[in-house]
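Z., the sequence and structure:
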Amino acid sequence: MARGTMNHRAFPWIAVGVIVLDQATKWWVQQSLALNAYRPLLPGVLKLTHVHNTGSAFSLFRGAGVWLVFVSIVSLVAILRYWFSLQRRGAAVSPVLLLGLALPFGGAAGNLIDRLRLGYVVDFLELPRWPVFNVADSAITVGAVLLVLHFMRQEESAKAVPAPVDRKLPGASQEEGLAVPGEG
């Protein structure tokens, strides 16, 4: 494995880890807190607040359940297709790209499980002046930021590589290859 790359087999483990952590924390919140109840975790910074969210991450698009199920499935398929295309090409995968794909996959799957099973998503992490969210939302957000960083870095690398220079001298034919001054 090349330096700075990760094993392709890590993708499902990371995605499943996010799903398990997301579902376990949601189950715990449902067992520990009544709906709309809260418990300060870090006073003034973080509360556990049990809410039901019919929207997407951070309570956007409330009530768009069927549309969000469709978007979630399309997103999961798109991530898998891109991941499998990387594997087929044998492309080296940086940790940033691996996490940028596996985290949103796990997050989208975790929230999709809630939507299909419950008709809403269980949210419970509340920061001041921020909508209540969950582990899956966090994974989606962190993964999206990592993807942006990966592709920005890739774009910068492409700009830094000079374009190939045609070293053929005028008058040299294609068959002759590189013309060397003073020969021929």
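The chain is about 55% helix and 10% strand. The longest strand covers residues 46-53.

Let me know what you think.
H.
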